């Protein structure tokens, strides 16, 4: 028991030293006046302590590969933290995310390809993505497609077996006779 206590004590001290070193490194790069800990971009709060590429993936509809491409098109250093970005860099990132085709991002890279209504290729973000998904499911339900019916009933949609798994939410069990 005594040995385990001393090991955890040393580990705790090491963790504190590492945390302090991270704070020093962060403050050595910029003074705390310019650093933003939380950014508000496209109706999403972004953690300023993360690297830029991973920070903007917190915006719904922006994945890691799309984020990487957007930052390269915006000429933003990938090693920067999100809180270190200037207002001009944030504006460039937002315009590229909202209008990716104007910046020669290929159609196959976008998350909404050949829209059902107008056949356009677009990159949907945040609330627009939620709305479009809900609209697609409503359309499938209205035309009574198999996928729409399965969604409506709360069952698996993509052909999975449902005999033994996915029983949550339903009444299950057999009562044993007393005798």
UniProtKB/TrEMBL annotation:
<keyword id="KW-0687">Ribonucleoprotein</keyword>
<dbReference type="GO" id="GO:0003723">
    <property type="term" value="F:RNA binding"/>
</dbReference>
<dbReference type="InterPro" id="IPR027437">
    <property type="entry name" value="Rbsml_uS13_C"/>
</dbReference>
<feature type="region of interest" description="Disordered">
    <location>
        <begin position="159"/>
        <end position="179"/>
    </location>
</feature>
<dbReference type="InterPro" id="IPR001892">
    <property type="entry name" value="Ribosomal_uS13"/>
</dbReference>
<dbReference type="GO" id="GO:0006412">
    <property type="term" value="P:translation"/>
</dbReference>
<dbReference type="InterPro" id="IPR010979">
    <property type="entry name" value="Ribosomal_uS13-like_H2TH"/>
</dbReference>
<dbReference type="GO" id="GO:0003735">
    <property type="term" value="F:structural constituent of ribosome"/>
</dbReference>
<protein>
    <recommendedName>
        <fullName>30S ribosomal protein S13, chloroplastic</fullName>
    </recommendedName>
</protein>
<comment type="similarity">
    <text>Belongs to the universal ribosomal protein uS13 family.</text>
</comment>
<dbReference type="GO" id="GO:0015935">
    <property type="term" value="C:small ribosomal subunit"/>
</dbReference>
<dbReference type="InterPro" id="IPR018269">
    <property type="entry name" value="Ribosomal_uS13_CS"/>
</dbReference>
<dbReference type="Pfam" id="PF00416">
    <property type="entry name" value="Ribosomal_S13"/>
</dbReference>
<dbReference type="GO" id="GO:0005829">
    <property type="term" value="C:cytosol"/>
</dbReference>
<keyword id="KW-0689">Ribosomal protein</keyword>
<keyword id="KW-0963">Cytoplasm</keyword>
């Amino acid at each position: 028991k005594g040995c385990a206590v001393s090991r955890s004590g040393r580990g705790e001290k090491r963790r504190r030293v590492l945390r302090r070193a991270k704070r020093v490194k962060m403050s050595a790069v910029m003074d705390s006046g310019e650093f933003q800990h939380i950014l508000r971009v496209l109706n999403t709060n972004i953690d300023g302590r993360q690297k830029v590429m991973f920070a903007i993936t917190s915006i719904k509809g922006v994945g890691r590969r799309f984020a990487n491409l957007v930052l390269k098109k915006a000429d933003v250093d990938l090693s920067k933290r999100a809180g270190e970005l200037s207002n001009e860099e944030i504006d460039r990132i937002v315009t590229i995310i909202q209008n990716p085709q104007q910046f020669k991002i290929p159609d196959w890279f976008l998350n909404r390809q050949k829209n059902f209504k107008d056949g356009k290729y677009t990159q949907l973000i945040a609330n627009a993505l939620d709305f479009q998904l809900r609209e697609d499911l409503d359309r499938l339900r209205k035309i009574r497609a198999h996928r729409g019916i399965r969604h409506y009933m709360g069952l698996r949609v993509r052909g999975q077996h449902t005999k033994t798994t996915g029983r949550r939410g339903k009444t299950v069990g057999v009562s044993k006779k007393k005798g």
